Amino acid sequence: MILVTGAAGQIGSELVGELRARFGSENVVAGKHRTPLPEAMELAGPSALVDVTNRQELDTTIKNYGIKTVFHMSSILSALAEQNVETAHEVNINGVFNLFQISLENDVEQLIIPSSIAAFGPDTPKTNTPNDTIQKPNTVYGISKVFTELMGNYYQQKFDLDVRGIRLPGVISWETEPTAGTTDYAVAMFYGAIRSNQYECYLKPDTRLPMMYMPDAIKAILDISKADYLSLNHHCDFNVHAMSFTPSELANCIKDINPSFQISYKIDPLRQSIADSWPDSLDDKAARMEWGWKPAFDMRSLVNDMYKNLESKLT
Ligand code: AKB
What we know:
By secondary structure, the chain is of the alpha/beta class. The protein has helices at 10-23, 39-44, 55-65, 78-83, 85-105, 140-159, 185-196, 214-226, 247-257, 269-276, 285-291, 299-314; strands at residues 2-5, 28-32, 47-49, 69-72, 110-112, 115-116, 162-164, 166-168, 170-172, 198-201, 209-213, 238-239, 243-245, 262-265. The chain has 2 domains: 2-169 and 213-239, 3-Layer(aba) Sandwich (Rossmann fold); 173-211 and 243-280 and 296-314, UDP-galactose 4-epimerase, domain 1.
C-alpha cells in the first residue's frame, strides 16, 4: 500500500494519478492537509488527512492502511519558507523527522523524499555542480533539504531503512500550479502568455536555473523508487538534470509560438537572492550511472507541449 503526502500539490497531484494507474487506485492513499484534493482524485481512491507535523495522525494513517511505501511530496517551498521560518521548520524539519521515525516503527519498506537544488548554496560550484560538493545553503528551505538528505542517509545506513531522494530543479507543469517557490515564474510565464500576452517576471532576465518538465520529474521519482537497491551508492542526494534556461530565453521560446507575447521585469529581491544562491546546471552522472536517469524533454519540446496543454486547459 502506498501513501503520497502533499497529494494536492503540484507534483503530488500528478504522482497520485500515475501511481494509481500503475498499481491500482485502491492501493494508493492520497494524503491531504489544508488544500482539498481535486474531486476526481478524492473519488477515485482512498484518501486521508496527513499532517506530518502531527506524529499521531501520521502513525494512525500508516497503521490503518498498512502503508509500505511513502512518497513524501509535502513541503514548504523556498520563498514561503523564508517568510515563515517557524512553519518551514515545523513542516520541513520536524515533519520529516516524524516521517523517518514513524516509518521505522511501522516497518515501512521504502520512503521517497525529494530534495532540491536548494540544498546547494552560494559557495557551491555554480555550473555543472558536482553531485558531492559544498552544501552550505543560506535559505531555511535549503537547510531543511540538507537535513532531509543527511537524515535520510543516516536512517538508511544505521537502520537499513530504504530512503531515496533526488534533488529536483524547478518543475514545470500545466495541471496544478506551483505555489511559493522561486522557480514558479517559469510556469506563471505560460499562464501570462496564454491569458494576456504578457508577463511581469520577478527574476532578472539573465538568471539561469535548472528546470525540468513534469513528465520527467514523475519519471525520475518512479525510476529512483524502483532502482535496484544494491546498485545505489548514493541514496537521498542525487542530482538530476534536464535543462537550464533564463527568463529571457524562456520568453523568446514562448514568442516563437505566440509572437504577441511581451515580457517585462520587476525584480523581487527575496526571490532574486534565493535564485542567485542556486546552481545554474548540475552534473547528474551519479543518477545516470546508478539507476539509469535520462530525461526525455529539452527546452523546445517542453515549451511546445506545455503551451499546447495549458492553452487547451484554459480555453
Ligand atoms: C522552489 O523554487 O522553491 C522549488 C525548488 C527548486 O525546490 N521549485
